[in-house]
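Cross-check.
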Amino acid sequence: MSQSLADLISADGVPAGIRMWLKSSAYTRRLLLGASGDPWESASQYLSYFSQAQGLLKPDVAVIEVGELFDSWLSRNPELKPELGGKRKLSFPLRKLLEQTQPRALLAEVVEAVLAHLRGQKPLVLAMPSPRHWLQHANGLAGRGAMEVDSDSVEDAAMYIADLARAVSVYEVGGLLFEEAVGDQSSEPIDLELYRPIINVAKHYRWPLAVRLGDAGLVANTALSEIDVLITEFGLERSDMAQGVNVSSTLWSNEQLIPLRANQFYFAEVPSDERPEHVLDCLARLRG
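Predicted model, tokenized:
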């Protein structure tokens, strides 16, 4: 039986089984496959890469970067790119990308292979760009310039992503993570209520739901209370939910780590060009 994020978080939001959550694909791809390496050509190729990466860094949470899968597939199938901009609607490029059967089938094969490899030892989380972030990214892939993101388009994007998540509902996924854009200084505060289709799907399949905030603020509403894990730079003054403290900006420069509260764990994104010895030293610091 596979683990869930819920198995590592107590009813009062204390992440008893999580000390260190990593975003490390850029680093491990370079280290294990080279600068132009691509692990997404087949499920067997991905599993070989994934097992090496897990053995190297030993994170508490296993993560599959779903957005990278679709980017990789599109790079090998560039004939689809003109079709992404086939309609003017802002959400159309994302809809067109996510409805492709080949990357969906590959995702299912990868999830099945990784779960068999993990053997229930740690939860498998599917990480994806948030609806707002993926909407912007897909429009960029379609060759469109800067755009104003409206709430209706974000809700449409959430609906398409929820449909993608349903496609792997037969597997014992341990949770979903949605990541906002980092460095997007122009963003309005994130309204999680616009992600309602995803929240409803996660509830239906009993998938814990995590959100990583970028540089934008957060609208305080009832949707926030339906998020199981929130990852931020400094954490929120809430004791009723598990929180990841993003130490990516301080860890690699050997600055002092902030002490964790009872409901917090460390989150870190590993730079792609970081030295392996330094990475292992820093991860040892996170483990305490």
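The first strand starts at residue 20 and ends at 23. DSSP finds eleven helices and eight strands in the chain. Passed to J.P. for a second look.
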